[in-house]
Structure formats: structure tokens, C-alpha cells
């Protein structure tokens, strides 16, 4: 799913991002986001607010991959992940779904659509519908 072009804002040049390391950014309304360039060249953006610790630290999280098998499917697939630098909960970077809640309640994170155009990273000004928690104020 991709956001309409008029709801995307330029965040930074792609070359400003370091593969496998997060960067924090602000959207025009003051929303803090975490932006990640993965080794495969994909760029992901999620909320900066860690719903478990209450701190704005997700850009300092660890990225990786996790093997998932969907219900009713035989084939496994690899999904890009983000683990909190605080308590190590893990989310699917593409959907915001919790992969490992560390034994606690599942608190998904908001995901923002991203496009790279002419060497610039553009991020949606609103999270993708259906991602994150309604009570999470980032």
C-alpha cells in the first residue's frame, strides 16, 4: 500500500542513511519517526515512540529478520524486524505487528509509507491505517 504523493514529505537524501542503522526524523506536525535503510535497499519508517518503555528510542533499535509461517501456509517467509533498544520487544517493520512481546501484552507500532524518489526519502505524513495502537500517543 502506498500513500498518495501529496501526503508524502521529503525527509532526507537516501545517501544520508546508513544501512542497518536507524535515524530519527520529525514530520511537519512534530510526530517523531524512526527511518531505516536495510541491506536489501528497502527503506522503512515507524513511530519513534517505544510503547513498552515510553521513550522515543526506536531509531536506536536493532534491525534484523525473522522467519514467519502464516496460518494455513506451508512456506516460511523472512520479514524485516526491529527490536527495541530498551526491553528487546520485536516488531515486523513492514506491518508494525508484534513478533515478540517479551512476555507482556502485544503493543503494535505505527508504520509510515515510504518512497524513494530522485535520491530523496519521502515519508507519509500519517501512519498506514490499521497499524499501531489507538492508545499510543507518540
Explain how this protein is built:
- It is a single chain.
- The chain has strands at residues 8-13, 22-26, 32-37, 43-47, 62-69, 76-83, 90-92, 98-100, 111-112, 114-117, 120-124.
- It has 138 residues and is mainly β.
- The chain has a single domain (5-68, 75-124), classed as Rieske Iron-sulfur Protein, CATH 2.102.10.10.
- The chain is globular and about 40 Å long.
- The two termini are 22 Å apart.
- InterPro entries: NirD (IPR017881), Rieske-like_NirD (IPR012748), Rieske_2Fe-2S_sf (IPR036922).
Compile the SSE list and pairings.
Layout: E1 8-13, E2 22-26, E3 32-37, E4 43-47, E5 62-69, E6 76-83, E7 90-92, E8 98-100, E9 111-112, E10 114-117, E11 120-124
Antiparallel strand pairs: 1-11, 2-3, 3-4, 4-9, 5-6, 6-7, 7-8, 10-11
Organism: Brachybacterium rhamnosum
Keywords: Nitrate assimilation, Oxidoreductase
Pfam family, one: Rieske_2
Estimated radius of gyration: 14 Å
- Characterize the largest beta sheet: strand count, sense, and whether it forms a barrel: 4 strands, antiparallel
End-to-end gap:
22 Å
Which series of helices and strands comes N to C? EEEEEEEEEEE
- Per CATH, the class reads Mainly Beta
The quaternary organization reads as: single chain
Give a brief outline of the structure.
The chain has 138 residues and is mostly beta strands. It has strands at residues 8-13, 22-26, 32-37, 43-47, 62-69, 76-83, 90-92, 98-100, 111-112, 114-117, 120-124.
Pick out its properties.
single chain; 138 residues; mainly beta; Rieske Iron-sulfur Protein; four-stranded antiparallel β-sheet; 40% strand; globular; oxidoreductase; NirD; Nitrite reductase (NAD(P)H) small subunit; Rieske_2Fe-2S_sf; Rieske-like_NirD
Amino acid at each position: 500500500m502506498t500513500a498518495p504523493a501529496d501526503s508524502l514529505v521529503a525527509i532526507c537524501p537516501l545517501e544520508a542513511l546508513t544501512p542497518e542503522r536507524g535515524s530519527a526524523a520529525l514530520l511537519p506536525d512534530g510526530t517523531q519517526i524512526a527511518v531505516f535503510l536495510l541491506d536489501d535497499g528497502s527503506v522503512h519508517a515507524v513511530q519513534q515512540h517505544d510503547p513498552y518503555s515510553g521513550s522515543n528510542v526506536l531509531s536506536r533499535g536493532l534491525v534484523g529478520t525473522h522467519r514467519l509461517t502464516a496460518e494455513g501456509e506451508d512456506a516460511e517467509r523472512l520479514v524485516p524486524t526491529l527490536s527495541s533498544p530498551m526491553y528487546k520487544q520485536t516488531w515486523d517493520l513492514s506491518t508494525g505487528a508484534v513478533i515478540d512481546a517479551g512476555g507482556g501484552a502485544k503493543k503494535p507500532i505505527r508504520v509510515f509509507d515510504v518512497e524513494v524518489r530522485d535520491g530523496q526519502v519521502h515519508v507519509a505524513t500519517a501512519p498506514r491505517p490499521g497499524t499501531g495502537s489507538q492508545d499510543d500517543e507518540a
